[in-house]
Amino acid sequence: MSDTIIDVTTESFMADVIEASKTQLVLLDLWAPWCGPCKQLTPVLENLVKAGNGALRLAKMNIDDHPAVAQQLQVQSIPAVFAFKDGRPVDGFMGALPESQIKEFIAKHLEGGLGQTPEEQLLESATQAFSEKSFQQAAEAYGALLQINPENRTAQAGLVHCYLATGQIEHAEQLLGSAPELERNKEPLAAAFAALKLAQQSNETSGETAQLEAAVEGNPNDHQARFDLALAYQAAGNKQGAVDALLEIIERKRDWNDDAARQQLLTLFQAFGFDDPISVEGRKRLSSILFS
């Protein structure tokens, strides 16, 4: 274990925390083996300390074995973390906070702030590669993220999008099949499930748009033909065409086929991303139709 992440005892506390804090920020992590939240918090602290590149130290103290410091600090519950600077405690928090809040806590007391954690570096690399359509490179980065943290839902969703972008629908289905039920309707997994649904629909669609366009032109109220045309546009990557066709159905007959057009439209928006310009404009148009 590096000298930036250490186990500290009552006897070593003065040297490892008090004296050390005169040259670098020291985080004192008070924990115990029976404490569940401690087991969640400590790995997060370790990752953030590693990202500090030596600018701060994590001193971990088992209060079952060494209770004196916790008693002196009047700790009522654990996990408890204290920031030491210049030989004294300057701040602290209790409980397993989210990583973003812990990072803000550290940054308040660390000149120059924190660098990126290994997970943040991999996520940035994966996102950049995906935006450049380097799907294999992105998939490798997302996969590495999942090796570090199998519960990283952003990495899981990102890898699904990589599989879908390369036509590996079965791989995407298998990966999403392992997602917890309670998280499937939350982002970013919800968007991944929506994208998978579109890919499955596209895989079943012939994509013969000319025949469908002719059918709709011959009978503008042939809503099934227009719906199939939307799916064909979707399969061909014509996002705007798919949205326009579904909006046309809703405008002509809102409740057609048990609201199928609106439901499909919402799936499109979720798969595209709600901040996608086509989604933004499409939602405005949908609201205008529904509330006019």
What order do the SSEs take from the amino end to the carboxyl end, as H and E? EHEHEHEEHHHHHHHHHHH
Domain count, please report it: 3
Structural class: alpha/beta
Query: Proportion of β residues?
Result: 5-15%
What coarse outline follows from CA principal-axis ratios? elongated
User: Approximately how much helix is present in the residues?
Assistant: 55-70%
Largest sheet, strands/sense/barrel? 5 strands, mixed
* Helix run count: 14
User: What spatial order of strands do you see in the largest sheet?
Assistant: 1-3-2-4-5
Q: If you average the pLDDT, what whole number results?
A: 91
At CATH level 2, the architecture of the largest domain is 3-Layer(aba) Sandwich
- The strand count comes to 5
Rg measurement, Å: 26 Å
Query: CATH top level of the largest domain?
Result: Alpha Beta
CATH superfamily of the largest domain: Glutaredoxin
Distance between the termini: 65 Å
Ranges where pLDDT stays below 50 over 5 or more residues in a row are none
Q: What is the CATH topology classification name of the largest domain?
A: Glutaredoxin
Question: What would you note in describing this structure?
Answer:
With 292 residues, the chain is an alpha/beta fold. The protein folds into 3 domains: 5-109, Glutaredoxin; 118-203, Serine Threonine Protein Phosphatase 5, Tetratricopeptide repeat; 205-290, Serine Threonine Protein Phosphatase 5, Tetratricopeptide repeat (Alpha Horseshoe), CATH 1.25.40. 59% of the residues lie in helices and 10% in strands. The protein contains 14 helices and 5 strands. The protein has helices at 13-19, 36-51, 68-72, 99-109, 118-131, 135-148, 153-165, 169-177, 189-204, 209-218, 223-235, 239-252, 256-272, 277-290; strands at residues 5-7, 25-31, 56-62, 80-85, 88-94. Strands 1-3-2-4-5 form a 5-stranded mixed β-sheet, with helices on both faces. Helix 2 links the parallel strand 2 (25-31) and strand 3 (56-62). The radius of gyration is 26 Å and the shape is elongated.
